[in-house]
Amino acid sequence: MVSTKIKNTPKYLKRGMLLAIILVLGVSAVFNFVNEAPAQAASIDELRQQTAALSAQIANNNAAAKALASQADTLKNELAALAIQIDQANAQIQLTGAKIDELSAQLVKAQEELDRQKGLLKESMRALYKKGGASSLELLVASDSFSDYMNDQQYLETLKSSIQDSALKVIQLKAQIQAQQEQQKQLLVQQQAQRDQLTVAQNQQSNLLAQTQGEEARYQQIVKDLRAQQLEVNRQLAAQLRTFSGDGSNGGYPTVWSRAPLDSMLDDWGMYNRECVSYTAFKVHEDYVLGKKKKDMPYWGGVGNANQWPGNARAAGYPVDFQPRAGDVAITYNGVMGHAMYVEEVLPNRMVYVSQYNFNVGAYSEMQLSADNSLLGKMTFIHFP
């Protein structure tokens, strides 16, 4: 249960055609990488180089897909804003159309009033004509007095003038209404043109969104293909790592470490070989290689004592609690450094079946223990996702 004391090893995409060209070139490069990947590795080191290169490609393509997803979200927001503007433009067009209809109705009423005033003016003119057709002597005789005669004449003239004034006012009102109606019609044309421009912009944004989402889907497919290839490389790597001497009863711990004397070399995580932490680190890594876990074993060299793992795990964002699950790393705090075990199976009554190294000095072993009160003490469980 000894650990080493060495230290740990040490914008948004532009839219449009330029983005499309960059994305296509990126996709081409990725597919060339996939097609040129070797079918079989000659050694563990080469397989590790392959899986590391694939991880880098996956990270790059995930970043591109994420950037495209962000761009798609921006385009969706812009489309939503354009839709609101188009709705507002349509509402303004409806209001302007209603105003034009209202002015048209006012024009009809004004024309009706003008026709009525013309009719009255005709009647007034007809009455004046009748009066004017008789001689002054006849009109004077027909009147009860000279005063009445003069009043009749003045009334007819006044009536004529009043009707003319009313008709003139109606004509002026009609002209004003027509001018207002013409202004509203011009406004309507402008509003419709603005709405049409917004619609064109909306269509352009919709096309760009479809293109962006298509590129995002393409990158996601590339990531999927790369992960499938990485899984195959990892299977080959796991097959080589699991090659060991004897009857296979050391949990798959690599031969290069299991055959070497205890604490004579460091594993890939900076821990001495055939220690409990070296074995559990390997088991977490093996689960990752085989696709059972989404994340690989972190590098905890230099701070790798078993009793330090729960703190390391919490700092790295991994869940730590007292509920065992298969594939967990079980930690006990006995001794100076604690002890780490790999949970093979969870049994009834909170019993766990574990595999481990260095329970017996430098050796592999398996046993069934209580998660709460084993001979090693209560267990804390680290859940590696």
Tell me what you see in this structure:
Strands 1-6-2-3-4-5 form a six-stranded antiparallel beta sheet. The protein is 62% helix and 8% strand. The two termini are 24 Å apart. It has helices at residues 17-36, 44-133, 136-142, 146-241, 255-258, 276-289, 309-315; strands at 320-321, 329-332, 339-347, 351-357, 364-370, 380-382. With 385 residues, it is of the alpha+beta class. Helix 1 (17-36) packs parallel to helix 4 (146-241) and helix 2 packs antiparallel against helix 4. The chain is rod-shaped. It has two domains: 63-239, Helix Hairpins, CATH 1.10.287; 261-382, endopeptidase fold (from Nostoc punctiforme) (Alpha-Beta Complex), CATH 3.90.1720.10. It is built from seven helices and six strands.
